[in-house]
Design goal:
By secondary structure, the protein is α/β, with parallel strands linked by helices. About 35% of the residues lie in helices and about 20% in strands. The chain has one domain (about 5-250): UDP-N-acetylmuramoyl-L-alanine:D-glutamate ligase (3-Layer(aba) Sandwich).
Amino acid sequence: MSVPIAVTIAGSDSGGGAGIQADLKTFSALGVYGASVIAALTAQNTKGVSGIHDVPAAFVTAQIDAVFSDLDVGAVKIGMLANAAVIEAVAAGLDRWHQRNVVVDPVMIASSGDALLQPKAVEVLRRALIPKAIVITPNLLEAAALLDAPLATNEVEMRTQAGRLLALGAKAVLIKGGHAQGPESADLLVDATHMIRFAAARVATNHTHGTGCTLSSAIAAGLAKGQALAEAVRGAKDYVTAAIAAAERLNIGSGRGPVHHFHHWW
């Protein structure tokens, strides 16, 4: 029996809590072999992002072709892609290698509030990449930015925005309520015919760096193992909730610390 393989195409987080580093930790924690395509470099720690260095689109393409020509990839997670040329290169690579289990986390703003996506690249993200996704995983801020709309303030508005995002071409939308208020953190998985609500008790902690990256890569891990989308989302939600609950045990950095990817083992 072969080991399931997932690939992350995203930015590197020098602080280790988000991006490529969080994705690879998540894959490993969930029993999936992780490979990577680095699309951007960040100078970053728990206090914020101090610099972004774009990887040339041609080199992103070279990494994609090296990985997909050799590995039997079961799912792809896509995170931070800083500019339009890289987004186009990734979209072309997905077509060239016939990838279908594609999870797109439209990373636009870091948890510290720093912008991670050039404004002119947003339209390319909508046009070129979102239609290739089996699911996109925006938080409330990202959903509003993708739609050029006000922030959703309740679950009715979240479902409405998810429907509008479906119209961009993704097969499903997981709109995440982590930035909302209340005792529960509820995410809504919406496709053309159904909605499933995934809720967990909100954990009182500031150490939530990398939660979005971790959730999307956990979904990709589930898909790589052959799970249906709803099953993969449910498992990912449970995993991230436990990782947030254990984050205080890590005590990493002096700012917004990372979640505990290996809470089950350490």
